[in-house]
Automatic annotation (TrEMBL):
Coiled coil: none annotated. Residues 472-483 have a biased composition (Polar residues). Residues 1-35, 471-506 are annotated as: Disordered. CDD domains: PolY_Pol_IV_kappa. PANTHER family: DNA POLYMERASE KAPPA, DNA REPAIR POLYMERASE UMUC / TRANSFERASE FAMILY MEMBER. Residues 120-299 form the UmuC domain. GO terms for molecular function: damaged DNA binding; DNA-directed DNA polymerase activity. This is DNA polymerase kappa. Gene3D superfamilies: 1.10.150.810, 3.30.70.270, 3.40.1170.60, 5' to 3' exonuclease, C-terminal subdomain, DNA polymerase, Y-family, little finger domain. Residues 484-506 have a biased composition (Basic and acidic residues).
Length: 506
């Protein structure tokens, strides 16, 4: 029976679309719960300026196993930041003139490669799963609801006004909005709708690139030249076509490269677009005041580390350029200097043309400790991985087992079978000893997540693989038989921006 479309009066300020300054990430101060509150709040809420949400989330989570695990992780990070600051103080007492010259030479080298000739677009479907559900159940349009039970996969914009967000535990979301309606996932429905979006995108760039089931990158330079149209007009037209044909709204960012386009697509959400002029001065000014967390590839951990040394915005990076390699490593230094300059890749290509690193699947479930049930879950996971390997035509030389304890602690184990594996019998056979060893190490082991992944891939057949979170371009989409399965089987691009630092993506 469909729920009554009741509206939940918001205890927080309306106008979540208004611009507010993000609360500064707390420093590495021991005993201060501020950093943990900031982490629990999440990036999507840090930008909304919703007073009181952090306190509600903190109090709702406090005492839970999830909270305890996050507290431990937060303390570990705080101690790491203490070490970074100690190292920074040491560097300040040394001669860094050589490091400064080296950094400036790298900046000059990057500038020589700046390409402002391309029109790159990032398309992001607005609250995609929720939007698809609303098409089947119009009564949900005016009430706060989410998709996902134990953990929210997404939520509509009414729910976001209360502080609900993707990745939030369901019990926390219910504290924020007691009238929240939670729907089960239906991947068949979402992939069918995504196929319709995909058909439109192909008309503008036949080689468009997927980032996930609801995101894509396009290079519309050729389309603009062929049709004598301005990029903004092209994207307006594209978005209108998507809405007319699928009833789904999309937001878009238009810029000189993929990194900037991704950032810009968030500027006028939902159902809007933003173009950043392809001009060096404009780009530098745009990046100067941009909080580091807005950049894809800078997660909560790296954000806190950067904040601790005084880097709050991309413009702050330059001042610290001499220290960065010694504090965070060469890859991080290169990535950050590209962020400072607003540089990114302009090459857009189908996801199947990227080199794939692994194939895996995982699922979450209610706390489970019965040994027979856990082995049945391991067998089921092996079955699902076999399907993914058959579909993607890979087998793997390394098998990785992942589990999440009821305390939210994540453990991984890996082994190297004597041959590349892809059949469920072999996957289970070589995963079972790792699992049995974990049981011995952790008496009474209780799990809430299990996954298997193979790496060091060997191709069984040359050909296209999953695209846009769907299937091969020339065939109909495969459907996901288990609605709680992770979408980790989708293609993950090398990085949505060339040079993206691999240290922290959360």
């Amino acid at each position: 029976m469909s729920p009554e479309p009741t509206s939940c009066p918001s205890p927080h300020a309306e106008g979540s679309g208004a611009r507010h300054a993000s609360p500064p990430p707390p420093g590495a101060v021991r005993g201060d719960d501020g950093s943990l509150k900031y982490h629990l709040l999440g990036p999507s809420l840090q930008k909304s300026g919703q007073d009181g949400v952090a306190e509600i989330i903190y109090n709702a989570s406090k005492g839970s196993k999830f909270f305890n695990n996050e507290s431990v992780k937060d303390q570990v990070l705080t101690e790491k930041i203490d070490r970074i600051l100690a190292r920074k103080r040491q560097l300040e007492r040394t001669d860094l003139s050589h490091d400064l010259r080296r950094a400036d030479a790298y900046v000059a080298e990057l500038e020589l490669g700046r390409d402002l000739s391309q029109a790159i677009v990032h398309i992001d479907c607005d609250a995609f799963y929720a939007a698809v559900e609303e098409l089947d159940r119009p009564e949900l349009k005016d009430v706060p609801f989410a998709v996902g039970k134990g953990v929210l996969t997404t939520c509509n914009y009414h729910a976001r006004k209360f502080g609900c967000r993707s990745g939030m535990a369901g019990f926390v979301a219910m504290k924020l909005c007691p009238q929240l309606i939670c729907l089960p996932l239906n991947f068949d429905k979402y992939t069918a709708k995504a196929r319709g979006v995909r058909a439109i995108l192909e008309q503008y760039d036949a080689r468009f690139e997927s980032a996930s089931i609801d995101e894509a990158y396009l290079n519309i330079t050729a389309y603009c030249e062929e049709h004598q149209m301005d990029p903004e007009d092209v994207v307006e037209q594209l978005r209108a076509e998507v809405h007319e044909n699928t009833k789904i709204t999309v937001s878009a960012g238009i810029a000189a490269n993929a990194k900037l386009a991704k950032i810009c697509s968030n500027k006028n959400k939902p159902n809007g677009q933003f173009r950043l002029a392809s001009d060096r001065a404009t780009i530098m000014a745009f990046m100067k005041d941009l909080p580091t967390r807005k950049v894809n590839g800078i997660g909560r951990v790296f954000e806190r580390e950067l904040d601790a040394i005084g880097v709050k915005t991309c413009g702050d990076i330059y001042e610290h350029r001499a220290n960065l390699p010694k504090l965070f490593g060469e890859k991080a230094f290169q990535f950050l200097m590209q962020c400072y300059l607003g540089l990114g890749r302009t090459k857009i290509q189908p996801a199947e043309e990227y080199e794939r690193k692994s194939v895996g699947t995982e699922s979450t479930f209610k706390d489970m400790s019965n040994k027979d049930e856990l082995r049945a879950k391991l067998w089921h996971t092996a079955e699902e991985l076999e399907k993914d390997l058959e579909r993607t035509q890979f087998k793997g030389r390394t098998l990785v087992l992942k589990v999440k304890l009821h305390t939210y602690e994540v453990l991984t184990r890996q082994s190297s079978p004597p041959f590349a594996v892809h059949r469920k019998d072999d996957l289970y056979k070589y995963a079972l000893p790792m699992f049995t060893k974990l049981e011995k190490e952790i008496p009474g082991m209780t799990l809430r997540l299990m996954g298997l992944r193979v790496t060091h891939l060997v191709s069984m057949k040359k050909g296209p693989i999953d695209f846009f979170g769907l299937s091969k371009r020339t065939t109909s989409a495969d459907t996901n038989p288990d609605p709680q399965r992770s979408k980790s089987t989708e293609i993950t691009n090398k990085a949505e921006d060339d040079g993206e630092w691999e240290k922290e993506i959360t």
